[in-house]
Amino acid sequence: MSVKYAVRRTVIQVFATAVQNPFVQNLWTGVVFKGSAKAVCAPGLNCWSCPAAALACPIGAMQFLATSPQSTASFYAIGFIVLLGSLVGRMVCGFLCAFGFLQDLLYKIPVPKLKVPPRADSVLRKMKYVVLVFLVLLLPALVTDDFGLGEPWFCAYLCPAGTLEAGIPLLVANSTLRGMISALFSWKVVVAVTVVVAAVLISRPFCKYLCPLGAFYGLFNRVSVARLTVNPHMCVGCGCCKEACPMDIDVVRGIETSPECIRCGACRNACTMSAIDWTLAGKKPGKADGPA
Amino acid sequence: MMRAHWLLPLVFVLVGCLLMIGGIASGELSSVYDAATTICFSCIGIG
Q1: Are residues A184 and A261 in the same domain?
Q2: Which A residues, 90 through 149, put their C-beta within 8 Å of a C-beta on chain B?
Q3: Which site among B3, B7, B29, B32 would you substitute to test the A interface, given the most A Cβ atoms closer than 10 Å to its Cβ?
Q4: pTM (2 decimals)?
């Protein structure tokens, strides 16, 4: 197993988080960046109200266009996710998502870890599709007020990234906003704290169970250009890959098609037989020379 | 067979590009910019 690979991946995650959130000084002033880059979607879940954020959140964009009486869907944001998903699938979650990186860091805290029972795990994993369909796509467009305006349900009631990256920093920096706190903020803090505590005990719980962006990207894992494949002739069935997988996938059976695979490469790194490798769509897995 | 494996990803890449272009052409970028540059009360939980 190569430590180099884990370090390389962490460096990419740090770099991606920094590129998406370069204005750290704004965290103290509470000023939201207003440059033209804000019209461009970030690849991962990254709240656009975070003072440090340079890009727009694709899930936020989908919801806000849906809440408008003039439109029902954001073709731009949906197209962005379809394009990125069909190129790399959920590799975005494994390498580029700031909130995924935060969960990876939290899981490194050395405390006894929880194993979710398989049946509960299987049911909970379907929740992210419910979140995507109802909180992101349907309710913002269908539940409207007298003026025809909807509400961004996912942002308002569930998104822990918004609370941690934007809500808390903005409320710390801005006394006027502190005076506007309502019961909704208490609910959002409860959700955020629950996700943070869960991320210490369970590997990537938000990605597995709740993230609508991961659910969307996951739909393209089966057809994406870049993918991980297992060479069945080299695999000895030792189970090292399954042990290393942060998403608890049965790697040998499901790595190429599973919508759960975040393409982090932990399985490839753990495989002592070099049976797992990156490939492109239409190419058969090549024989690697040795462990990475 | 190999071509078929390439075809589906290619179709989705093209669909993604077309959707993005359509969205940009219909002025969605300015809507996204407006939403992303104002503090979203819903996002921060005070809405």
Answers
A1: no
A2: none
A3: B32
A4: 0.93
